[in-house]
């Protein structure tokens, strides 16, 4: 793609090469002009007054007596000055000016290219550190280097910073995944060991408790596999036209007993049915995750308002509750894996910390997005934007 930026690296280099070339030509020309001027004044000062006056008149009108003019010039400047020979004084003077000018141009060129070289050297050094796994390194920006190269260094630093975040999140995710997998597995093993050691009765109740932990473990591994597919871009979606309003009504009907037990009032408003091209099952997972979160965290006597709005190219679905909300510093990491606002309460209530991560992955797979923010009053506002007819990634 053609770069429209006027300060590209190519322009930066071309401009300086052109300026150096022009400066070299100008310096040589000025040197030759100064040489001729000095020679002229030096020679004319040593001519007799009569010859000087005659030369001045002939210089004003050379055609009047060209033979006499050449006689005076040859006598004053020497016969070799007018010979078409490379050894003529003019060529010697030109060569001397070139020899003197070249070192000056080289020095200026080196000083001009120094910022360019320093910036590339910085990038090379930092790239070597990043290749060794040091994602904390950043390339220093060199002043007076090309703007395009400075922008490249800034983008490179942003890329390394993103890699640092990914590495930190990956390590935290591995630790959290190991902990989450170990919890139900340890509970199941402990219960089975207790039955083998006759600490617990070998009855249906104890086996049901073991089965519950194994189901939690199976669900957790399924969720992790789902997120891995989403990260790799291999999430399969069955796209068809669905009515978002009807889908939300269906999910609310399924969860109505839980809403009643949590004393959570749910209301849905929409001016008309909203049809979009989406995967009904996956979008149902998104709505389930948001409803389950509201059941866990809103508290008794709270309300959850769901509103659906249709625009020209997308649908917006808002979930607004009047519960306690979340801390401000928790908002940026709400959709990270294994993230909970209240770790102990969430785990005891069955949450794995992957529900919102899965919801986020599903929305992105639909070319949409899900965001949350704190409204002016108390509670939490979550917005889902879904395209109506866009192709799915």
Instruction: Give the CATH level 1 class of the largest domain.
Output: Alpha Beta
- Domain count, please report it: 3
Quantity of strands, as a count? 7
Give average pLDDT, whole number.
82
CATH topology of the largest domain, what is it called? Heat Shock Protein 90
- Write down the secondary-structure element order: HHHHHHEHEEHEEHHEE
Can you summarize the main beta sheet? 5 strands, mixed
User: What is the CATH superfamily classification of the largest domain?
Assistant: Histidine kinase-like ATPase, C-terminal domain
Which runs of at least 5 residues are low in confidence (pLDDT < 50)? 1-5, 343-350
The first-to-last residue Cα distance is: 24 Å
Structural classification: alpha+beta
CATH architecture of the largest domain: 2-Layer Sandwich
Specify Rg, calculated over alpha carbons. 41 Å
The rough form would be described as elongated
Approximate strand percentage: 5-15%
Placed side by side, the strands forming the largest sheet appear as 2-4-5-7-6
Q: Count the DSSP helices.
A: 10
Main location: membrane
Pfam families: HATPase_c (PF02518), HisKA (PF00512)
Catalytic activity: ATP + protein L-histidine = ADP + protein N-phospho-L-histidine
Protein name: histidine kinase
Layout of helices and strands, plus pairs?
Blueprint: H1 9-45, H2 49-60, H3 66-77, H4 89-131, H5 147-196, H6 204-232, E1 240-243, H7 244-262, E2 265-270, E3 275-278, H8 280-297, E4 303-310, E5 314-321, H9 343-348, H10 355-365, E6 369-373, E7 380-387
Parallel strand pairs: 2-4
Antiparallel strand pairs: 1-3, 4-5, 5-7, 6-7
Helix pairs in contact: 1-4, 2-3, 4-5, 5-6, 6-10, 7-8, 8-10
Transmembrane segments: 12-38, 91-110
Organism: Candidatus Pantoea deserta
Enzyme class: transferase
